[in-house]
Fold this protein.
Amino acid sequence: MSRIGPHAIYPGSFDPPTNGHLDVIRRAAVVFPRLTVAVVANPQKQGPMFTLDERADMMREAVADLANVAVETFAGLLADYVRGQRADVIVKGLRVVSDFESEMAMAHFNRALSGVETVCLMADAAFSFISSRMVKEAYLLGGDVTSFVPVSVARWLNVREAVETDAAKGPPLQR
Ligand code: PNS
């Protein structure tokens, strides 16, 4: 792909993608001419609910209308990945002040390892309470989370629910 201006990488677990992630992506795609959403293969958090391919597919569908946004996956160190991509900047979203502490440490770390700067966008206040963790927890306890996630994700959650319901019913009766 040709390079006219900075290439930004927006990394995350996206398990699953939320409306908050999509808000950051849409705004970052205005600021940066090229944006790669990088879905991490091995989140530190225990046991992702969705596989890497599922998370990447849900994200691809959600950003399909954004011509300058690509979705990739990566495993290992973010600093190595951004250097390999010859990216200029890492993008993160900050929802609340407590996000800042860990993001600041990661920004220092990533710059020390790769020389790449981190730019943080402030999450829209409307999305400041939404996290993948809360969405998962509410969903697993039977809550309706469709207003917190993109349509592509809501559809996956419905499919998953249907599969799980069928599995719970057991095999069809043999007559
Ligand atoms: O959506 P998340 O889980 O909050 O995103 C965290 C993520 C994926 C950005 C962070 O865990 C990460 O960069 N992981 C890759 C491994 C790595 O480079 N770790 C050191 C970060 S300083």
User: Anything to note?
Assistant: The beta strands are 7-12, 34-40, 69-74, 89-94, 117-122. The chain has a mean pLDDT of 91. Residues 45 and 73 are 17 Å apart (CA to CA). The two ends are 58 Å apart (CA to CA).
